[in-house]
Amino acid sequence: MATSINFPDILTEIKNGIVDLAKSTVSNYLKEAKKDAQSLLTEMKDDLERWTNLLAQGLLTTEDFEWLVNSEKDTVKMAALEQAGLAAIRIDQFKSSLLNLIVDTVFKAIKI
Length: 112
Hints:
This protein has five helices and no strands. The chain is mainly α and 112 residues long. Helix 3 packs antiparallel against helix 5. The chain is elongated.
């Protein structure tokens, strides 16, 4: 496994994926979805970078990494989407898809 990664490139890839994800899942709430997703990334950035580096060094398993990322689901607030009136079940689905996007993007970058 690679031991050095370009985390800013990974973040850029995630941000690009967010736009596509929002368009395909909550297109009528695109602005709010992007705002909430950006807030999530800002909140998770330090942890995500640390976990990504540990994964790249082989100090975390893929299962551990997925668990850590998905453990953020309950703490993530989608305030803009909630305020815009999107149904809670759709917000939850968007959150799950967003966390999966993060995991998949990191795995792809590390070539797992």
